[in-house]
Amino acid sequence: MKLCRKCNTEKSLDKFYKDSSKPDKHASNCKECKNKLHKKWASKNRDKCVKNSIKWASENKSKVSKQQSKWYLKNKERISLQSKEWKKSPKGRVYNRFYCSKRRAQKLNATLEGFDQEIKEIYKNCPEDYEVDHIMPLNNPTLCGLHVPWNLQYLTKEANKKKGNKILCVA
User: Fold this and answer.
1) pLDDT one-digit tens code per residue, 95-130
2) pTM of the model
3) Is 14 helix (H, G, I), strand (E, B) or coil?
């Protein structure tokens, strides 16, 4: 048992942090008081805390990586559920459609710089039960189109599936 100098309460030694500089090898304040003092200091010295955290993380990349992996494994189900819910939200659907199509176009080398915002708006304004379709398909044996605003159109899901990878001639 030891007396905390801050709250004047007698507590067991496991309630105190270890401190090799002290005769009994334990800090003079209990963990609870020490944590309160640290939180108070950290709120007043936010910039220092952020700098110290960044410095520590850059010096201990393997520890950070292990901690992140451990946290991810512990919270895997929650992360998965949040991700699924977000992808179902209106903002998540737009984001997912836009970036998946952009990635596919980049893999096919069918993109031009500077049209991301316009294309994002097309995906954002896509009516319910419609899909954004490429007029000239990105991957066709005869002719390959680009992932640009003037090559995008809205089609119903059925019409898009029916069209597939074909080029439709409009007379």
Assistant:
1) 888 888 888 888 888 888 899 999 999 999 999 899
2) 0.50
3) helix
